[in-house]
Amino acid sequence: MHGGRLGLGQGTALYIGAVLGPGVLALPALAAAAAGPASMVSWAVLLLLSIPVAVTFAALGARYPDGGGVANFVARAFGPRAAACVGWLFYAAVPAGVLAGAMAGGNYVAEVLGLSHRAGYGAAAVILAVAVAANYAGLQVSGRLQLVLVGLLVLLLACATVFAAPHVTAGHFTPFLPEGWLSIGSAALVLFYAFSGWEAASHLSAEFAHPRRHLPRATAITLTIVGVLYLGLSFVTIGALGERARSSDVPLMLLLERGVGTGARGLTAVAAICLSLGAVNTFIAGAARLGAALGRDGALPGLLAKGGGAGQVPRRSLTVQAVLTGALTLAAALLTVPLDPLMRVTSAFLAAVTAAGMAASLRLLPRRTPLWYAACAAVVFTLVVMAFSGWLLVLPLAVAGCAALYWRRRHGPGAGRPGAQAEEPAAVDAAAVTSSPSAAPGSGRS
């Protein structure tokens, strides 16, 4: 930690916690239910195509560190009105996303303790409350907590893979495509939740002590660790569990039981809490800083801007997120909303955010360079994933429309055009942006 900023270790832990989230608790089973053994193809393709997304976000974050994250990139490329729409998309997605993450862990805890399914909502509420409290205490506390959580979860996931590997059976991989080729795309939409942490992490770019040096390293470390664990888990989930992988709500617990016996239930509970709390912690941190940046830039009420500077705690924005998440949690518990629709809704929102960020990168990055071509591939990849969202795309479109109307009413019809600073982002000095985020060029001030 340098002067209240994140060092490489804590920053990397937050990145890993965002990407290697609670999705691994439930997603192997949800993907297997959608595509059978062919879901492994979805895992591999998404991992491969997430590399240009991650690298592009790291490059943009290093060049333009700001709490606005993707919205800041879009402001520089397309103007503040477009940035307001993208910011609203992420801000609206976080309550559903963190609830889904907390529920994935809560369901495991309820299963391990032999409680009813409804008790999982209570466990999820506790996980959410701890994450919110850690963020109220400040990103330094949140980052230290994340270091511990990431260390535990990487160890436990590695153990699950290694101990279950001897039980892999070749017969469990046939038929390989029980639902047809299109099922791979359906599984990919569900799995996009597991690869969507880069958007949340982009909002923490200004919190790094040395963004230009630390962001690429944190991204490379995260990609390596997440890639090995995701591919290993997808393989042993299908190979060791067979049909049970398609019907179980707790596949990780079954893997650990297969490898080390019934005593693994306690380990599973620990893994569930670590995974859920780690991802929820990072998403809430990113959303709180985004809300402050949007308030600063006029895309949300200005009272949310307080505490949005680097190293500060945006408590007002954090409170809004806590209230929205609490209300959604209560509604989900009363209506017994399952996990799958929450993850699909979150994926639809975050896919739209990713597509906007990648489109912005095509204007912000030097043209016809390897990085620019990587961004092109990322745009195509994200649009394909969005196509499998189907009618769910109505939700982000509706939220973006509300954001555009809010911006127009507050600033007037001509306030959203890109300015000269957005057209020439390469001339912006990253150190100046970091030291004075409220005056970031292209931030959307009217």
Layout of helices and strands, plus pairs?
Elements: H1 8-19, H2 23-35, H3 39-63, H4 70-78, H5 80-112, H6 119-137, H7 139-164, H8 182-191, H9 197-202, H10 211-241, H11 244-247, H12 251-260, H13 264-296, H14 315-335, H15 339-364, H16 370-387, H17 394-411, H18 420-423, H19 430-435
Helix pairs in contact: 1-7, 1-10, 1-13, 2-8, 2-10, 3-8, 3-10, 3-15, 3-16, 4-5, 4-15, 5-6, 5-13, 5-14, 5-15, 5-17, 6-7, 6-13, 6-14, 7-10, 7-12, 7-13, 10-12, 12-13, 13-14, 15-16
Protein described:
- The protein is 73% helix and 0% strand.
- By secondary structure, it is an all-alpha fold.
- It has helices at 8-19, 23-35, 39-63, 70-78, 80-112, 119-137, 139-164, 182-191, 197-202, 211-241, 244-247, 251-260, 264-296, 315-335, 339-364, 370-387, 394-411, 420-423, 430-435.
- It has a single domain, classed as Amino acid/polyamine transporter I.
- The chain is built from 19 helices and no strands.
- α4 packs antiparallel against α5 (80-112).
